[in-house]
Amino acid sequence: xxxxxxxxxxxxxxxxxxxxxxxxxxxxxxxxxxxxxxxxxxxxxxxxxxxxxxxxxxxxxxxxxxxxxxxxxxxxxxxxxxxxxxxxxxxxxxxxxxxxxxxxxxxxxxxxxxxxxxxxxxxxxxxxxxxxxxxxxxxxxxxxxxxxxxxxxxxxxxxxxxxxxxxxxxxxxxxxxxxxxxxxxxxxxxxxxxxxxxxxxxxxxxxxxxxxxxxxxxxxxxxxxxxxxxxxxxxxxxxxxxxxxxxxxxxxxxxxxxxxxxxxxxxxxxxxxxxxxxxxxxxxxxxxxxxxxxxxxxxxxxxxxxxxxxxxxxxxxxxxxxxxxxxxxxxxxxxxxxxxxxxxxxxxxxxxxxxxxxxxxxxxxxxxxxxxxxxxxxxxxxxxxxxxxxxxxxxxxxxxxxxxxxxxxxxxxxxxxxxxxxxxxxxxxxxxxxxxxxxxxxxxxxxxxxxxxxxxxxxxxxxxxxxxxxxxxxxxxxxxxxxxxxxxxxxxxxxxxxxxxxxxxxxxxxxxxxxxxxxxxxxxxxx
Length: 527
Ligand code: GLN
Hints:
Bound molecules: glutamine
CATH topology of the largest domain: Amidase signature (AS) enzymes
Strand order of the largest sheet: 1-3-2-4-6-5-10-11-9-7-8
Shape: globular
Order of helices and strands: HHHEHEHEHEHEEHHEHEHHHHEHHEEH
CATH superfamily of the largest domain: Amidase signature (AS) domain
Number of strands: 11
Number of domains: 2
CATH class of the largest domain: Alpha Beta
């Protein structure tokens, strides 16, 4: 039995634990799931007005579920004795509050995808990855804000209003999974799922000082993930530590008969991850991911963060060198051609007939389609639909769409070749740190160019992780949502460093992420 309830502040040690430790403490009744869930909702009460990380949350139901978890543990311990309490018979995340992005279906809860089109849509079933989270005992507490249908870099393209950066309300948290990242960074959830088509898990994780894992394409089922670009969509964790990312990945991964592109991939061995050695690793930095265009060139802080990270790897015995991958210069246009083509096809289902929004005052079928789609979709979504239809049109199919497909194959091949020589590839996650609202998203080409570093992995189906670092005043993992001020000036914004690995190379990239997290933490504390 828990001896006595904790006051809000004495919960802090539990809230700073990784998910494995926290779940163990809940199972051992050192803290209750109810206390943790209530604390998370207290944070929501305090911050959400400014942050707007969520589109929906359900406090009473979550507290009810948390109580049921606590009761299940009590009964388990009564029956099996306390020494048995930590065994695997209880689900690994029992009682831990987790948030999910709004494009992941959860039965009976709204799934708006940040769009007026789906404002009133309530799905009757859950996404496979969400079901798996529930089976693992997680308490799902809400649906997080996102750019409409996942299209954007800032969460400003949500029909329901933008999400703010947790460290600075003038700035964006990244996108399109900005709600998930802001919620975790502000302790409004202990971890979250996002989705990543061209970088939407990694880039918001980078902006908010978190870990963001885009898994190998197919290793997480897409069943119940509202489609944007089906050949690239993947759900992935946004977390405060590399261990949390591994734990969530292990829960959501697996083949699923409801998604024919899903495959059984190896789970992460946490012990192997903990014992990762950097010595002798070969790491390449693709030159083309250090370039940029127009307003988007790699910023000084990001370049600094990358070079300190590179030096850290070298000091620990890795060989790090620049690698020339010329075809990556085409990754942004190739991504936007292919993803828009797929989006225009996927979004054709929103026609005002089957489900979702239907415009009023309709005279005929044609008007039903045009009015519904004109009123239901936002500007960015319409732009993608137009672009997608253009590249798929009979005049342009061969010279644009087909060419982009060929270039995609070359990009995949360039990665396959690179991974013959390197264990990992390294780049910034984003060329810039969190921009101010409107700074990037107001100009589509600038926004698209800012995806330079994340889209290559998406096109190739390889796994990639964003690791939080700060280059100032000393390299160290960035405290999630930390309110770090340097001499009273503006906060030091987190920088994300991206590690990419070969397909099914999650063990390798998570091992390297953990190595950095562990070693630099010690160093920073000493500094
Ligand atoms: N920024 C990219 C886009 O707008 C990525 C989006 C995503 O990964 N969902 O398409």
